[in-house]
Amino acid sequence: MSIYILGIESSCDDTSAAIIKDRKILANLIANQHVHKDFGGVVPELASRAHQQNIIPVINNALSKAKIHKKQINAVAFTNGPGLLGSLLVGTSFAKSFALALNIPLITINHMHAHILVHFIEDSAKKKVPPFPFLCLTVSGGHTQIMLVKSHHEMEVIGQTIDDAAGEAFDKAAKIMGLPYPGGPLIDHYARQGNPRAFSFPHPKVPGLNYSFSGLKTSILYFLRDALKHDPDFINKHLNDLAASIQQTIVEILMHKVRAAALQTGIRHLALAGGVSANSGLRRAFEAEKEAGSWDVYIPRFEYCTDNAAMIAIAGYYKYLAGEFAPQSTTPFTRYQA
User: Fold this and answer.
1) How many domains does the chain have?
2) 338 assigned to some structural domain
3) Who's near 174: CB < 8 A, 6+ residues apart?
4) How many other β-carbons are positioned within 10 Å of the β-carbon of residue 292?
5) pLDDT for 114-168, tens place per residue?
6) Pair 43, 156 in one domain
7) What's the CATH code of the domain at 296?
8) Which terminal residue of the chain has fewer beta carbons within 10 Å of its beta carbon, N or C?
9) Segment 90-101, tens digit of pLDDT
10) Which pairs count as long-range contacts for 148-157, CB under 8 Å and 24+ apart, including other chains?
C-alpha cells in the first residue's frame, strides 16, 4: 500500500507544499515573496505575513496537481527548524491543525537534514543514490556544513562555519557591488563571462574542517573601497571579472575543506545540497573531482537545491517508515540542532 506524505516548508521567505507517493514527488509548488527585494534582504515580519496568505492556496494547489484528496494523506511533515521563528510558526500551526483535523501523524523535519535527503527522491532520471556512509557539503544562505551521513536518520556535523555562511558571502559581496537582492545568482551569472584569476582574495586559516567567511566579506569591501577611490567606475568596468574571482575564491575555500574531510574519513562518496548547490562554479568543482576519479559525486537537480517542500516530504517519508511521529505540543526552533 502506497504512503502519501504532505510536506510543508516555511523556514524563510518561500511557502512550499509537496505531495510524495512513497519516494516519488507528485507535486512540489513554491510561492515566492518578492517584497524583500526592496529591502535588500528578508524582512522576518513581512515573511511571516506572506506565509499566512500563501499557505492555504499553495497546499490546495499541491493537492490538486497531485490529483489526490486530502483524506488520502497518511501524515503531514513540516519544517520545525532551523529558520525564522515567525515563518516557522505559520507552517507549524497549519501542519498541527491539518494533522489534528484528519487524525493523522505529525512529523517534524530538520531543514538541513531534508536538504541532504533530496538525493533519495525517485525520479525518471534513474539516478544513483549515495550509499551510506557518505559526506555531504550543505551550503545555503544561513548554513555551511560538512555532514557525515550515516543513515536516513543519523547525521553528524564534522565541519561548519564559525561565523557567516557561504551563501551570505555571495549575497553580501553582490550587495557591496551594488547588485540587487538576492545577489548570489547574479554573481554566478556574471562570473560565467569573467576571469576567475583576475583578482585575488585571501583564504581564511581556520583549524579542522570548519569554515569562516566573515574575513572574506571584509576583504572584498576594503578592496572595492580602495579601487573606487582611484576609479569610480571600477565595478562596472570589471563586473564579470570581479564576480568570477569572488566565486572562485568561495568555491576554493569550500572545496579545500571537503577534500580534507574526504581524506580524513576515507569516504569517496560526496554529495552536494542546499541553495548554493545551484551555483555553477561549485557544481563544476564537484564534477571535476568525479572526472579525476577522486570521488563518486551526487549533485541535486536544480529544483531541489533551494528551499522546497519536496525535501520535507522525502524526509517525512523515511520518518514515517521509522514511526518517528511528533506530539501536538511540538515547537519550532531557530538554530541548527543535530
Assistant:
1) 2
2) no
3) 180, 181, 182, 183, 184, 186, 187
4) 8
5) 999 999 999 866 678 999 999 999 999 889 999 999 999 999 999 999 999 999 9
6) no
7) 3.30.420.40
8) N
9) 999 999 999 999
10) 148/265, 148/267, 149/116, 149/271, 152/117, 152/120, 152/318, 152/322, 153/318, 153/319, 153/322, 153/324, 155/113, 155/116, 155/338, 156/338, 157/336, 157/338
